[in-house]
Each structure stands twice: as C-alpha cells, then as structure tokens.
Amino acid sequence: MRKVFLSLAAMAMVFYSCENSEAELTDESLEQENEEAFSIARDKCGTMGVLEEKVAENPELASKMEAVELHTQHAIKNGLAQRIAADGVLEIPVIFHVIYRTNSENIPDSQLLDQIETLNEDFNMNNPGRSSIPGEFAAVESNVGIRFVMEDVIRVYNRKRRWSPDDSMKFSSRGGSNVVNPQEFLNIWVVNNMPYQGGNILGYAQFPGGSWSTDGVVLDYRVTGNTAWGFTGRTATHEVGHWLNLRHIWGDGGCSASDFVADTPSAANYYSGCPSYPQFSCGSNDMTMNFMDYSNDGCLNLFTEGQKNRMLSVFASGGFRVAMAQ
Q1: pLDDT in tens, 192-205
Q2: Active-site option among 105, 141, 239, 305
Q3: Is there a catalytic annotation at residue 53?
Q4: For the domain bounded by 38-325, which CATH number is listed?
Q5: How far is CA 269 from CA 46, 141, 249, in A?
Q6: Tell me, what's the pLDDT at 11?
C-alpha cells in the first residue's frame, strides 16, 4: 500500500512539474509568436471587413444601418447635430475589458489612462501634432467636444493564443467578457493577436446599428495607450470614430467612393507611414493626417467639421446612441 501511495505521489509530482514547464514554455513561445504576428500586420483596421461579413450573415443589418444613415442625414440637415455640440462637452464613460494570457498582455491601469488621455486630446483639438496641419485643412479642423472617462476595468485571464475578429472576446461563455450596458458605456476589449485575412489587425469597431450584445471597440494591447511599440493610442481614436459612424477617409474604394463627409477630399487609397505634404489623388490634395486614414500615430492630427457633425448625429434625438447624451 505504501508503494502504491509513493508511486501515485511520484506521478503527481512529475505531472505537476511537466505542467509547469509546459506553461512556462508556452508563455515564452507565445511572446515570440505575438511579436512575429504583430510584425506582419496587414491592415491597421478590420472594421470594414468584419462589417461585410456580418451583413452577409444577417442581411437585416444593412437595413438597420441604412436607417442610421437616413437619421444622420436628417440630423445634419436640420441642425440636430449642431445642437448637441452647442450643449457643451459630451461625456462618455468607458469600460475596459482586458483579456490576457501573459503579464505583458495584462496592461496596467496607467496605460489605459494614457489611452483615455489620447482620446480626450484628439476629440477636443488638443493633440500634440496640430501645428503640422496644412493651412488648407486647418480651415476645416474641428473640436468634436467629447470627453472620455474611465469608468471601470474588467480583467479576464484566458490561455487563448489569438482572437479572430468574430466578437468571441465579447462573451464570457467563449472565454471573453460580456458587454456592460452598451447604451450607457463605451466598451473597449483589449486582447492579444487578431489574425484576419492573411494578416494581423490592430483593432476593429462596430458601427451604430449593430447588436447591443457586441457593441464597442476591440484593440490589440500593443496599440492601447502609449506603448513600447511606438504607438500613442491613435488606433483607438480611429476605431472610436467608426463606433461613432465615421467611414475611412478614402471611402474604402477609388475616387468614386465616399466617406459621406463633404469636407474630406476624395482619395484613391489609404496612406501608411508618415506621408509628406502634399499627396495628390482624385483631383485634390489628400488629407493623410485625418484620424480616419492609416498613417502612423504621430502623423494623425485632425477630425473635420463634417466628421464632427456626423459623429454627433448619433447622439441627437432619434439617434442610435441618444441615451448617452441624456
């Protein structure tokens, strides 16, 4: 009997030792895998690809978004968006869901507060790069007048190596974290690698009109706030722009495509890096420094008056996010 007990104890110790070694090795290999995947990011934003997939799965979504668009046009035409701006700064509380496997993915509150600060800079015309905006575009630069406040941080440990942009991180039943009162809070999920369409995206957002159960923004932890990878939080600014119904500045098409904003010039495609001024396409200079382009964080510097009105329309009477303005 004593021999059996000793054998079982020995087996338990071997199992425990192997389990620990496997966990340590897995975490170490995960860090390397994270960096390899991150270095081959194909697109900064997966929002439009995810939207196309959701519309294909649920054709009713197209009708709901069309209704949001009709309301947006009505709100702008009748001055409803401008009334929201006239009421002063609109405050939006933010819930962060940090879903992590390693310590580096479990980013601290200080980094999340950095992200909040960046959002407040960009939506209130206080971002540090404003002095570089060309004169022709400075004329339409706008103070959106939205203030973001960190309401809460929810942390969830999950051994998952990567997350597809299928909204699985938004459900506790799938190893993520359930949305918290999306009609009152902006929910932001922070995760590790997000492989998508042969690359690795940095973030994606849900447009107004989608399901409340998945409403919000998803970010890679390495682009959230000021990071060691050279990002300063503008990915979140870009994705929150989508969450507030902005399209990409180039309209996700050629010169005939539209972002539904009159004061952003048409562009043939997106830009990356830090383009010098001027860059020309579609018969005019391109607004490469607009937050809804793909230029590097340090070279993104403005929203326009037309973009402001479009965003604030969702808070106007009858708008998709009107509850946040009440």
Answers
A1: 999 998 889 999 99
A2: 239
A3: no
A4: 3.40.390.10
A5: 16, 21, 9
A6: 36
